[in-house]
Amino acid sequence: MVLLYFSYLIIVANILILSVGYLTNIALIGSFLGDLIAIGTDPIILILGALLGAGLVAKTYKFSVIYLWLGAMFLTMLVHVILGTTRVIVDIVKFDALLIISALIIIATSFFRPLIAEMTEDFEKSITKKAPK
Predict the structure, then answer these.
(1) 12 half-sphere exposure, CB direction, 13 A CA radius
(2) pTM for this one?
(3) CA distance 59 to 115
(4) Are the CB atoms for 105 and 57 separated by under 8 Å?
(5) What single string gives the DSSP state of each residue in 54-117?
(6) CB 3.0–4.6 Å: which of 39, 91, 106, 129 could bond 7 by disulfide?
(7) How many Å apart are CA 72 and CA 77, to the nearest integer?
(8) Is the distance from CB of 79 to CB of 94 less than 8 angstroms?
(9) Which pLDDT does position 58 carry in this prediction?
(10) How far, in Å, CA of 98 to CA of 132, rounded?
(11) Is 60 exceeded by the pLDDT of residue 131?
(12) What is the mean pLDDT of residues 16-35?
């Protein structure tokens, strides 16, 4: 549940920062938004962010928010080494993009959690019934 609230916090904070930057016409926020869109649509970042979010949803951990933060940081360093980026702002944007993609995956799966629980209950009931002799 804490992971879901943290995911909402990530999305809301990004929307607030970007909307305030747009309304006040700050060029740095505009360039950050452009970088975020460019890096956020990179297939490597999309796949790694989706895997991070799906991994945290599939297995619940006690400190899942810390694992989300550390996982995004580790994946940012991994992509930094693989792609060989030289600027710090690019790594900051990659980190933010990984957090946003993971948060979107966590929020999307939270809507389907009751449906999945209902389906697994029906599946478990059909397995536990014994076949007639």
Answers:
(1) 7
(2) 0.82
(3) 18
(4) yes
(5) HHHHHS--TTHHHHHHHHHHHHHHHHHHHHT---HHHHHHHHHHHHHHHHHHHHHHHHHHHHHH
(6) 106
(7) 9
(8) yes
(9) 81
(10) 52
(11) no
(12) 89
